[in-house]
Amino acid sequence: MLKYSLGLDISKGDFHACLSAIDKNQQVKIKATRKFTNNQQGFKEVLTWITQHCKEKEIALSIVMEATGVYYEKCALSLFKAGFSVSVVLPNKAKKYMQALGLKSKNDKIDAAGLARMAAEQCLEQWQPMADFFYKLRALTRHHQSLQELKTNINNQLHADEHSIYSSKSVIKQLKKLIVTLEKQLDDTAQEIHDHLYSDSDVAKKVDHIIDIKGLGYMTVATILGETNGFALFKSIAQLISYAGYDIVENQSGNHRGKTRISKKGNSHIRRAMHMPAFNMIRYDVGNFKPFFERLLERQQQKMKAYVAVQKKLLALIYTLWKRNEAFKPHTKLTTSGNEETVPSFALAPEGQLNEVAPA
Q: Any idea which of 65-79, 238-252, 293-307 has the lowest mean pLDDT?
């Protein structure tokens, strides 16, 4: 055998496990299957079950599960702490893989077997748990976003009721009270996010470097840090761009020329947080964002495409400032190298030779 593979199909109350093994002929064979409860007792039982069936201890075991909401997190953390290699894949990736296998039926047992085969045949990226600091930060920023969206919905409802042919005074009164309550909760949550950011001196120092950029506030930085675990697992700007869904997708074949667009197959919270700061970069003429925007606008004649490119470039700048723990200097002008692993020409207070990010 080359390796063992364990596929876990996880739901709220339980999870199905399928243990497989792949041999040198790349044949995948199922060794055992079982259903466990999705709680601490179930996690203990699956560890014992793995020990019983993985008898050749020198052979590696790869575990894969889908990112099903938050239901997978406790199981993944338990297996990670036990020393196993755990991978978490997006549901759409697992779905397309199983469709490629020709699987027509779908249930928890079949899904677990498909995930086990996926772990056996592919080298998947290992999952790591988020640090407590950034996990709390993510919870706070997502809660703030939910409150803001709820307030917008209530404001829209209030506007409709106030201008309808028949309006109810009691309904309007309750909606106004609800808006006041939501505004209070938004202020409290924003303050808690600020206090949490500045509770760590190292984080606070880096955040201050980043929010020196005019038009970029701590709430945007908090959202990005919370969604990326403080950039802990990113080794390049290209990885971050892909994670945020800003990577370019082409649709061309032969004489066919389809639309070129961003994939949006990434973290929507980051893209949402970058929306207004991109406008501010142009409004306040920060660095060379405005000339960059105007060049793209002249070339493509589409404002939103140019603004998205600004978002992408600004995200690369935030990443670079954080990683290097250096201050933003808007008037620094450096030469272009075309190396996408380095930093924008207006990004940093230079200490040593710095280069420019390839155009978005």
A: 238-252
Spacing of C-alpha 257 from chain mean position: 30
DSSP state of 325: T
Distance CA 16, CA 109 (A): 6
Place of tokens 């039926």: 105
d(CA 207, CA 231): 13
What's the pLDDT at 227? Answer: 93
Q: What is the pTM of this model?
A: 0.78
Question: How far separated are the first and last CA of the chain, in Å rounded?
Answer: 45
Q: What is the mean pLDDT of residues 168-187?
A: 96
Q: Is the pLDDT of residue 299 over 80?
A: yes
Q: What is the DSSP letter of 328?
A: B
CA gap 145, 190 in Å, rounded:
10
Tell me the β-bridge partners of 22: 3, 28
User: Contact 124/64 with Cβ under 8 angstroms?
Assistant: yes
